[in-house]
Design a protein that fits this description.
With 345 residues, this protein is of the alpha/beta class. It contains 13 helices and 11 strands. It folds into 2 domains: 197 residues, Rossmann fold; 104 residues, no CATH class. The termini are far apart. Bound molecules: iron/sulfur cluster.
């Protein structure tokens, strides 16, 4: 029987799609698949809440992982509005902050499954480890993710497979179950030992990567969802600067350095109000929403607080409505720190 299966596999290599985050677990899962002569295709998802950008570590770690895996094909998928809808209204609720982990896994597995069908692959695999994450990696939840993704039976978790019911690839003999693993723990020691075996030394911290688990970011998200639409632009804005809620319908974002000032200008939209100091160095501010005269006055007071010399004397701040509004200059004393704190989100 085994001989027949082996010869079948020699004729046609089985293709599988692996969800590759760039972290250690998914890289190890892919290694285990390659060891069993599976032809691996990686799929990597990003969302507006990834801490990575094309220039920063998260995305680079996927490229590193692909190299570790011998240059397997990689497809990247950016999740946008569809993902925001999940964050706004997750069917299975939030984790410790604003992280809808179960719904997040379902949409990613579903999309990976669609890709699997498109390229004629036979199954999916992930780097999930039973018991590692309290919300999304419990046995019952893994089952639920399989069912609601629409690919139940076609998903293998190579690092914990021996503790889970056999999936179709094991039943069909495409994978030898005894060569899969039985990890179950919040400890990462077994994965680290396996990384040593495979000579993998460069992998990112497993906790990083998702802003939705960050308490400060989650607070800003809740504020945004309370008072306005959740759009990709507003979500991007949450990643930049200090945020102040002036009134339910108006907020101010103030850059913390040159890079953030430039980022704010790049994210500013028509009808936003752009604040900038004159005669002294200081940040760029973007007012968004229905700012009336009183909100503008508060905004310049907050802006003045962060300008050079802004803790004592008056500061001149211009404000103009984008894109072509006439600039107005207001000379103001900085707002007192206690008052600034009242508006900080
Ligand atoms: S931590 Fe973030 S990226 Fe990871 S499963 Fe949860 S919501 Fe998704």
């Amino acid at each position: 029987m085994n001989q027949r299966r082996t010869s079948t596999r020699k004729r046609t290599r089985i293709k599988a799609v692996g969800l590759l985050s760039g972290g250690l677990d998914s890289t190890l899962a892919a290694k285990l698949m390659l060891e069993q002569k599976i032809e691996v295709y990686a799929i990597n998802f990003t969302s507006p809440f990834c801490t990575c950008t094309p220039k920063k570590a998260g995305c680079a770690s996927v490229v590193t992982a692909v190299k570790e895996l011998g240059g397997i094909p990689l497809t990247r998928v950016a999740l946008g509005n569809e993902y925001l809808e999940i964050v706004r209204n997750p069917k299975h609720g939030y984790g410790s902050e604003m992280n809808p982990c179960i719904d997040c896994r379902i949409i990613k597995v579903r999309k990976a499954g669609e890709y699997m069908r498109d390229i004629g692959a036979s199954f999916l695999f992930t780097g999930e480890v039973l018991g590692q994450r309290p919300m999304s990696q419990r046995r019952a939840v893994l089952k639920l993710i399989d069912r609601e993704s629409g690919f139940e039976g076609s998903i293998v978790r190579p690092l914990s497979a021996r503790l889970l019911p056999p999936a179709i690839p094991e039943k069909e003999g495409w994978l030898e179950r005894e060569r899969l693993l039985g990890f179950r723990s919040r400890s990462r020691k077994p994965q680290m030992a396996l990384a040593v075996k495979y000579g993998i030394v460069d992998y990112p911290c497993p906790a990083g990567g998702c802003l939705l688990t960050d308490p400060g970011f989650a607070r800003r998200m809740k504020d945004l969802m309370t008072y306005s639409e959740l759009t990709v632009n507003d979500t991007e804005l949450l990643k930049v600067g200090r945020h102040f809620r002036l009134m339910p319908q108006a907020k101010l974002v103030v850059g913390r350095n040159k890079e953030e000032n430039e980022r704010l200008l790049g994210l500013a939209k028509r009808d936003d109000i752009c604040f900038s100091p004159i005669e002294v160095k200081g940040p760029i501010g973007i007012g968004r929403g229905n700012l009336n005269r009183e909100h503008v006055q508060k905004s310049v007071g907050i802006m003045a607080r962060y300008c050079d010399g802004g803790t004592h004397g008056k500061v001149k701040i211009t404000n103009r409505r984008l894109p072509n509004g006439k600039p107005h200059v207001i000379s103001t004393m900085p707002m007192q720190e206690d008052n600034v704190a009242e508006f900080r989100i």
